[in-house]
Amino acid sequence: MSISEIMTVVIGFHMSHHRDFKNNYTGYVSVFYKKAFPNLLSYTLFLEVMPRAIVPMCAYFTSLKGKFTGIEFIDSTNLNVYHYIRIHRHKTLMVSHKEEKAP
Known about the structure:
Elements: H1 3-15, H2 21-32, H3 43-49, H4 54-64
């Protein structure tokens, strides 16, 4: 398999709804995309060659970035907690409201 095919399979897994890579590869890619990937490797061999795609994948994602503008976005969605007694412990930003007293 070529590096681009390996990258395609890995990116496809992250875009899918599968929870683990093994079921995605053995039950989905190898069944439905056998014609798209004629040199499809076995699952264990694919795991051995998958680290070779890390650097090209990082380079690809870096090339997709836009020009830096200095504007940043912050996600302000609520975090769900399991118990109401723990609500006040799950803060993402703690701001101190203590005022310093002049001597």
